[in-house]
Amino acid sequence: MTPVSSHSPHGQSSLRTVQVLGGGNAGSSAHVRSLAAGLVARGVKVTVCAPVEAERTYDFAGTGADHVHVPRSSDPGSLAALRAACADADLVHAHGLHASFRTVLALGGRRTPLVVTWHDRAHADGARAHLLRLLERRVMRAATVVLGATSELVDRARRTGARDARLAAVALPGRSRRPVEPEDPDRLRPKARAELGAIGRPLLIAVGSLERHRGYDVLLDAARAWRRLDPVPLVVVAGEGSLRADLQRRIEGERLPVVLVGRRDDVTDLLAAADLALLPSRRESRSVLAQEALHARVPLVASDVGGIPELVGDAAELVPPGDPEALAEAVVRLLDDPERRELLKDRGVRQAGTWPTEDETVAQVLSVYDELTQPRLLI
Predict the structure, then answer these.
(1) Domains defined along the chain, listed by start
(2) N or C: which end of the chain has fewer CB within 10 A?
(3) Which letter does DSSP use for residue 357 in this model?
(4) What is the mean pLDDT of the chain?
């Protein structure tokens, strides 16, 4: 018998959904905003539960969604606020491990369908690592459907006990399938390069939080080798984090050609000025920098780790994680090989064309919602 839906087709859905976001990294927060905008445009009622700081940055209410302040905490007050927000929902969608765990606690034994999007794995050492694994198992087993941003995450969700885990690649917000190229990139680059101090020398860009898993210690090790080049490349790192002071001490003490420029909101402009993009991470899922670089036709050198190979295909130079010699050599080879750089640019455009658009991402998620909320009439 054909399922009978209480909802109209996508454009006329009366579905009531709650999106739950914790502290949220930039990628998951931007995804929730994109998803909220797309769902509201299709007639879905959306409530976003997120800290007020995330609302200030991402303006979920500006999409037409309701925003409910829920702190990134599992204290009784936060759980009560989350429970109240989910009370009338047809479906709840949580993003990230911590937000998903709080949602599981808030829903209790309620039969409301729970969708979990797993954007990236959380990591920790010692006793906290054991706790994270327990949280993973609790969330994976409680979720009705787990959507993994990479095949690696989908496989792990299944191993951890997910009843239904599916690949649901997250689109890069604000990007169409066709990259937009400036009419004359050579005319637009000099100002940005001058501001960064990269006139007459190669400019290498890395973007991401200054935390251990980003592999910036490996990047600084590699930068020692680049001091021997003529001209010496300038490495610009955009981001903030707990390792800033340590990294700065190394840069100054070893006189490395590296500049920490802090958190930037003009990453697209930085990439447009760059000769190469660098991603030396020890772990990555669906890297925003990798996507931005390929869209911007900037050759990428990245760690062969996590979801990176699946994401970039043959459109980047991949090196073993934690290997500064391999990173240094790959960069030197590319700087000396303009034909290879042009090949990677062309491959990057082709690879970016295989990634889902925001509309396709929303459509896939909505199809999951419909599947989980349509009543079935058996005769």
Answers:
(1) 10-174+357-373 (3.40.50.2000), 185-352 (3.40.50.2000)
(2) C
(3) P
(4) 89
